[in-house]
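Human: I would love a firmer grasp of how sequence relates to backbone shape in proteins. Take your time, and here it is.
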Amino acid sequence: MKGRADSEERRRPPRLLAGVALGACLLIIAGRGAFEAVASKEIGYVVQALALTLMIALSFGCGFTRRPGQLRKFVVLYLFITVEVLSAAYVTFTSATINPWIYVVVMTMFAFTLWAYGSQEFAGLAGVNVMAWLAVAGLASVAVGLMQQSRLLLAVFPGSDLASGGGIVRPAGLTGSYLHYPLLLSLICFAFLQAWVSTRRRWYGVLTVVVGLAAVLSFSRSGAVILFVGILSYVVLSSNVGQRIRMGFALVVVGVVVFLAFGESAYWNRYVGGLSSDAAGNQTRITRWSDGLEFWVNSPFLIGGYTGQFTNVTGNLGGDHAGVLESGLMQQLASFGLVGTVLFYLLMAGVVLAVRPAHRWLRAGLIGAMLQTLVYQSIEVVPFMVLFALMPLVSTHIDSRQSAAETSRPGVAVNKPARKAQMAARAHVPWGTAGIGRIST
């Protein structure tokens, strides 16, 4: 057994190399706009797909164990792919204009990513500094985004919106789209918030504030929905009634202060006024939701009848499409029917449950992100879906850093052999130990 462990360890990439490779993959996934600036949007998507493939291969190559319920999640993945194929076949035989297979390939890529990180514990890759690379990816986009809001670099990095903000630039940062930028920042914000709560390292707290404020300043309601619903979800997930009351009171106080300070600002009207059905863009959004529901009802119902027709990604990759439905839920119902939609959201829920239960802020952020997809079409956004799927790996990394922080506190006696055994139990497959043979289903 020891000989097998040594052999497995030798086959793993060195930690430094794994860290650099992971960082490069994250920067590419979050930085399509850089490739679009020098090549094209299509090239950017292809490079993102290659980076995601490399990241998944790296995750498995650095050591993993199966999480409990892995077999059930694999069945969900298998059934989802089956429904995808049935839906695409139906559309192929009944429509002469729609090419459903582009969307099927993209959604299969996302589904596999959700399954991989939701059902496997990649403790080997979690040993590298995941948070540092998230910081680099997030801050690089924030820096470019803030310059774009100052009307700099707008002609260099594409995707910003200068028309709908009433004079306020909605930046794309390095993501290639003003719709992708706030989604990326909102997820990174919850990752750093959880890291700060777990380890109390100041730089995590500073990054939480910087990235969170940048998401709010982006003038995008999708990012604000993730932040607000995530905070509300944390209140619900809190462990005791007293904590819920304190959090609720704090939210009321913050809301009053923000209203007194910014009640007449464009941002207040955008975010709070946006709750009205008469707010800018909402009438169109509601109409498209209604259209999506009608398309689904008029399709085979259980599987999709309009696979890939109402999605930006089909058009971005060279196919024909008929616009968007402004809702990930409606988009999946039209594309894959009731069964496919339920299976896809089960894969997303598996990612939420794979985050450690003690990491309530991270789970709350993912719940906010999932609920946000019901009213925005973010399920086709590469950085959003990849970072969403990656959060169990982030949770494992934070847990290892939290353990290290606990052992380094002054005045705390540490039993080194016991701590080493505890770390091994937490991480399942620490770097330097081959635990692949210990698999549970």
